[in-house]
Design brief:
Elements (H helix, E strand, L loop, with lengths): L10 H5 L5 E5 L15 H5 L8 E5 L8 H26 L3 E2 L1 E3 L4 E4 L5 E4 L1 E3 L9 E8 L7 E3 L5 E5 L4 E11 L2 E12 L16 E5 L5 E4 L9 E10 L8 E2 L3 E4 L5 E11 L4 E11 L14 E4 L5 E4 L11 E6 L9 E3 L5 E5 L4 E10 L5 E11 L14 E4 L5 E4 L9 E10 L5 E3 L5 E5 L4 E11 L4 E11 L16 E2 L5 E4 L11 E6 L8 E2 L8 E5 L4 E10 L5 E11 L8 E5 L8 H15 L6 E10 L2 E8 L10 H14 L9 E6 L10 E3 L6 E3 L3 E2 L2 H6 L8 E2 H32 L1 H8 L20 H5 L11 H8 L18 H5 L1
Parallel strand pairs: 3-12, 5-12, 13-19, 20-26, 27-33, 34-40
Antiparallel strand pairs: 1-2, 4-7, 6-10, 8-11, 9-10, 11-12, 14-17, 15-16, 15-18, 18-19, 21-24, 22-25, 23-24, 25-26, 28-31, 29-32, 30-31, 32-33, 35-38, 36-39, 37-38, 39-40, 41-43, 41-44, 42-43, 45-46, 47-48
């Protein structure tokens, strides 16, 4: 079966790939289009909706295709896709999408900067129609300056391309057909052919004579087509020494040379890694015994605009006679321009030197005609000139009839020398004449009332310029009273104790005013005027206290006219006044050094458990002749208020009491808050002088707690309760004493003999006479007697035996029981 193409232009393409296709009847299957072409996705998704169409089936070749076969196969795929698409779109009546290819990406390398881009479209246009082409540049380098020709044709011509990446889009439009294609063009820079550097040393050969043992070799004249990156010096040949010379500097400096011949190699490397080497020879001669020794001094380096220098050959020596000197340019410096003075003296004066290297030769001759020569190199480097600085002087004010003044620009400066000055008027009334306008100091005449501005332009020897402007104000001759104006100081807060009142803004038409500051009667008396500033424009105040200060400024001119203005300074209390802690130390303030102060703060920080950097010293001064007052507060950390002064003082007192007050390097006599903060138990007020509580009526101090507890004054006890308690204690003590007395009496009644013996001294016991009663029974008087019988005291047992009845009967002569007498009750 033969496949009929949708357009006549497809037949030749299909004939180029006959081995890759066979056509059968059925549904259409085709490969995807070329990667640089565009296709409509809806065409592939709607192919199944079309029936009774031809189907192209790919048949893989039995042998590996050749290059031509691959190209034909790709073209065949594109054609087949377009064929199927055309058939489908023709049957559905929709717009066709063209397959557009702008070819593969193109890379060119400068100096080639022209490229032609061709667009390929499938299917080809019908004979009676043509496609419309439109090329667009999507991306390009920043410095793009190329030219695009024939943008609306199939072939785009590009020229004058610069280095970078270009992205082009081509759109193809036909009757009922549309497509896009993309292509990249990369322009690479022209490869640079590197040339190796050229190593140059100066001087190539030099000879020095001891005692001159130092010199240098210059390699800065080495060149390269791009840039010399590194210089490397190596000692190739030389006398036997401990260490060979090696350096990576532009100029090789040699010191402590010993006699001998040296060869040094300089290797320079450029930015591409290419190297080049050269050698320099140095001859160091020994000092001879009989010949003179020429010494032209060390090599010198100067920088323009300095173009003069002195070479000293007076270090040349001879063993006997004086020497004659002769200076000359070395052969390698014959083409140099220089002025030489004193060529036959030990000191050569050089001037008018230009940039470059100069080599001078000194020849010394002794009386015997023996000669010696030495060379010295002077390198003149280019100058590093800075522009001048113009200074036209301060602003001036004149009062008629004075109509002339001088303009002084002599303070203008330059690192070398100012060549010219020029004054010019740029503002003000006309008719002014400037005398000596091209000098540093000019004179201006013919001034009138108004404001003038004059510009001074200075130029140095290198034609660099700088300008400055000065203002001249000319006023009429009128004597107006001065105007006092005071700029008050903003409010300050303790511990800041200084302030400034500025009266410098006071004005007068002629100037020359005097100032007098006076303190108002309502201002605090404390505070000092510093440096006698009460007679100056600016008043400086110190040692201020809390309150509002008011000062009156009186400004008086030369005619006695005056004006007044008032300024105020408000001193607010310290925001952290209640957090300040006062420590009184037993040491004179003059004996405390900075190191001891820092050590004391560290010790206090250890006691409080904080860093010494958290302790802020507000004041340190004399408390009296023998003690020091230290005022501090403890910071609570960044963004936090300081610690409570009362808690800090309480904690520090307790820690010092536990440490027996010998922990600090100085003994602390007192630790308390600066402001007395005792609450006095809510029944009193804190006395700021004595730092003790003044209790309210009917309240008193708990001396037990104040002396043995927290050691703080208080008002805890009520006088009424203390009185009642004292009375009860007295009653209790009296009761106890009375009870003890009663107990003693009762004990005496039971043991009278012991009580008598205990209570009556032996000297008071008198012998009693023998009883005269002959009664058989003891009488009452006998029983009542303490002396017993026959002067012998009764024993307790006997006394009780006599007084007690036995077996319920009475002894012979004993009467009935009776009540005891009062004396017996007491005993």
């Amino acid at each position: 079966m033969e496949l009929t193409p949708t357009t006549p232009s497809l037949a030749p393409l299909l004939q180029r790939a006959p081995t890759f296709i066979s056509v059968t009847s059925g549904s259409a299957n085709a490969s995807s289009p070329h990667k640089n072409s565009t296709s409509d996705a809806s065409s592939s998704t709607n192919i199944s909706d079309v029936t009774h169409t031809s189907t192209a089936v790919f048949t893989a070749p039995t042998e590996a295709p050749t290059a031509a076969g691959k190209e034909a196969f790709v073209i065949f795929q594109m054609c087949l896709g377009c064929l199927v698409t055309n058939v489908l779109w023709a049957q559905t009546g929709r717009s066709r999408e063209l397959v557009v290819s702008a070819g593969e990406s193109v890379e060119v390398t400068l100096p080639r900067n022209e490229v032609e881009l061709n667009a390929f479209v499938i299917p080809t246009p019908l004979e009676e129609t043509n496609y419309a082409y439109d090329w667009h540049l999507i991306t390009h380098p920043k410095d793009y300056s190329g030219v695009m020709e024939e943008r609306h044709s199939r072939t785009l011509k590009l020229s004058k391309l610069t280095v970078g990446l270009y992205e082009f889009e081509v759109t193809v439009d036909g009757e009922g057909a549309y497509g896009k294609g993309y292509v990249n063009v990369t322009v690479k820079p022209e490869p640079r052919v590197n040339k190796p550097p050229v190593a140059v040393v100066s001087p190539k050969f030099q000879e020095i004579l001891l005692p001159t043992s130092s010199t240098f070799i210059d390699g800065s004249q080495s060149t390269d087509d791009d840039k010399v990156v590194t210089w490397h010096w190596e000692e190739v040949k030389g006398p036997l020494r401990e260490e060979k010379v090696s350096a990576d500097t532009v100029v090789l400096t040699l010191k402590s040379l010993v006699p001998g011949n040296y060869t040094f190699s300089l290797t320079v490397t450029d930015s591409d890694g290419a190297t080049n080497s050269t050698e320099a020879t140095l001859c160091v001669n020994k000092a001879k015994d009989y010949r003179p020794v020429a010494n032209a001094g060390p090599n010198q380096v100067i920088q323009l605009p300095r173009n003069s220098i002195s070479l000293y050959g007076n270090l040349s020596t001879d063993d006997h006679d004086s020497l004659s000197y002769e200076w000359s340019l070395s052969p390698e410096s014959k083409d140099k321009v220089v002025e030489m003075q004193g060529v036959r003296t030990p000191i050569l004066q050089l001037s008018a030197m230009q940039e470059g290297d100069y080599t001078f030769q000194l020849t010394v001759t002794d009386s015997a005609g023996q000669q010696d020569t030495a060379q010295v190199t002077v390198i003149v480097q280019p100058e590093n000139n800075k522009p001048p600085v113009a200074d036209a002087g301060p602003e001036k004010e004149l009062t008629l009839p004075v109509d002339r003044t001088t303009l002084d620009g002599s303070k203008s400066s330059d690192d070398q020398k100012i060549a010219t000055y020029h004054w010019k008027q740029i503002k003000g009334p006309e008719g002014v004449k400037i005398e000596n306008a091209d000098s540093a100091v000019a004179t201006v005449t013919g001034l009138e009332v108004g404001t003038y501005e004059f510009t001074l332009t200075v130029t140095d020897e290198r034609k660099l310029q700088s300008s400055d402007t000065v203002t001249v104000i000319v006023r009429e001759e009128r004597d107006q009273p001065p105007v006092a104006h005071v700029v008050s100081s903003p409010p300050i807060a303790l511990p800041v104790k200084t302030a400034v009142l500025d009266g410098s803004h006071s004005t007068d038409d002629k100037g020359g005013v005097s100032y007098l500051w006076t303190r108002d009667d309502t201002s605090p008396a404390a505070g000092e005027v510093l440096n006698n500033s009460d007679h100056q424009a600016v008043l400086f105040l110190g040692n201020l206290v809390e309150g509002k200060y008011s000062f009156t400024l009186t400004v008086t001119d030369s005619k006695g006219q005056s004006s007044t203005s008032r300024g105020t300074v408000e001193v607010k209390p310290d925001a952290y006044e209640r957090d300040l802690v006062e420590v009184v130390l037993e040491v004179a303030v003059s004996q405390i050094s900075q190191r001891q102060r820092d050590m004391l703060l560290r010790q206090i920080g250890v006691l409080l458990g904080v860093l010494d950097s958290d302790i802020v010293v507000r004041e340190i001064g004399a408390f009296n002749e023998y003690s020091t007052r230290l005022v501090l507060l403890v910071s609570g950390g960044p963004g936090r208020p300081p610690l409570s002064g009362r808690s800090v003082a309480f904690s520090l007192r307790n820690k010092l009491r536990k440490q027996k007050n010998d922990f600090l390097i100085f003994k602390a006599r007192r630790v308390d808050t600066v402001i007395c903060q005792l609450n006095c138990s809510g029944h009193g007020e804190c006395d700021p002088f004595t730092r003790r509580c003044v209790c309210h009526p009917f309240w008193m101090e708990n001396f037990i707690r104040a002396q043995f507890g927290e050691l703080e004054s208080n008002c805890e006890w009520s006088v009424l309760y203390v009185t009642i308690a004292s009375f009860m204690i007295v009653v209790a003590i009296a009761t106890v004493v009375w009870g003890m007395v009663c107990c003693c009496k009762r004990c005496g009644a039971r043991f009278p003999d012991q009580l008598l013996f205990c209570c009556v001294p032996p000297a008071r016991l008198k012998p009693m006479p023998a009883p005269t009663s002959s009664a058989l029974m003891h009488s009452d008087s006998d029983l009542d007697s303490d002396d017993g019988q026959n002067g012998v005291p009764w024993k307790e047992q006997e006394r009780g035996h006599l007084l007690r009845p036995q077996n319920g009967s009475l002894r012979n002569g004993q009467g009935p029981a009776r009540s005891k007498k009062q004396r017996e009750e007491l005993l």
